[in-house]
Write a structure and sequence with these properties.
Blueprint: H1 15-24, H2 32-62, H3 79-99, E1 103-104, H4 107-115, E2 123-125, E3 131-150, E4 154-172, H5 175-180, E5 195-204, E6 216-218, H6 221-258, H7 260-266, H8 271-275, H9 277-320, E7 321-324, H10 326-352, H11 360-375, H12 383-392, E8 394-398, E9 405-409, E10 411-413, E11 419-421, H13 424-436
Antiparallel strand pairs: 1-3, 2-6, 3-4, 4-5, 5-7, 8-9, 10-11
Amino acid sequence: MASYKNREPFIPYRRTDIIELCIEDGQLSADDVPKFRQFCHILSAYYHFKLHNALETLKDNFAPFDPDADTRPRVSPTSSQLHDMQSNLLQTFEQVLQRANYQPLNQADLQQAFEEESLIPLNTKVDFDDFDKAIIYYRGQQETTTTIKQFFVKKTELTFDMYERVVMFLKFKDAAHFEAKNEKLDQLPFVPGKIYIFLYKNIPKFDLELLFPNIEVSMTLKDRILFGVPAVGAAVPIALRALPSFGLIFGIILLLVWGPSFMTESLDATDDKVRNFYPVLTGLLMALVALGGFAFKQYTNYKNKRIKFQKEVTDTLFFRNLENNGGVFHGIINAAEEEETKEMILAYYHLLTSPQPLRNDQLDDQIEQWFADKFEVKLDFDVRKALENLSELEGEYLDPQTQSSRRDCLATTDEAGAYTVLPLPQAKTVIDHVWDNLFNYNL
């Protein structure tokens, strides 16, 4: 069983397509095709119900932390209960994500995303001290190329990694933390103490920081230079024109401090010079007004640039956001149901059509090679999870040889650790037995 660093367990086909691909493979007899469809149908129905329980667990534990809640609690939970509910929520949430073949983003990748220059030209900062808990999962990583402009004219191709799906779980600290930072609670874009969950699509690896609600944005060094250099260049000529008038202003100050006699004796302030002071003062004031107006214009340009950046970030997140908060649960539950069912169908099909039993490493290699040869898809199939699920489904069926009831699992192993599966008629009966005994209220 090979291990790959550049492959993922995610299967890039819908469950219904996987069923058809197996049938089109031509290994099933004409009589077995409808039986195989029925087997896949009842298997999917069972896992739909099974994962519904996980959905209810997520919803119940998320309720007191939901910033979008429009219902009131029957009884407010205690601090201890809130702690347990948060732990149960996070544990179930991560289990579902892993069943949906999402992978956690490690700290090294996250740190690299923050250090590298974003595709959107911004300086960004995220204060992780604002969170009690912050985790990120992703699924589907591909290399993407885009064209960007450099120096306003030159176009350059930039290659970067993109995550096809990104899930974020953020638990903010309570209000006291933000009050200690002198933050105005009514101006925060989030509610302290609440949990925020986001599901995004097609996020560049180095733009991950843009997804955080508490991101702080500032101008890049390049943009500061573009604004600063013209401002300095325009201010210097104005200052040079006003410089000769500074001497007279200095003289006026001395006049007020030391009196007229000092001005006459020390600065030779004649009547003509004093008479000419008012036009000079007027010119100086006009120069200062012009300088102030130019400074205000540069500041306005800076604010407009910042607004433009914020709009670009907002547009990016708006068109890439799939779900928020409680809505994310339905998306990942559906994904987990799809992935686990696809894995079980593929494992069962390849064991069913194999002329001899297969060890888990042999089955893993066979399925991965099947995808590579027939569909040019390279994946790291999670054979362990598929075989565990098949082995856990145990029920009763009628043994065709002895005509007696027998209890068995869908998949079993021999002494050498090789797996076999029940034939389609018996496999359907086993799942039907499991389904019929989900509730035993008539005992």
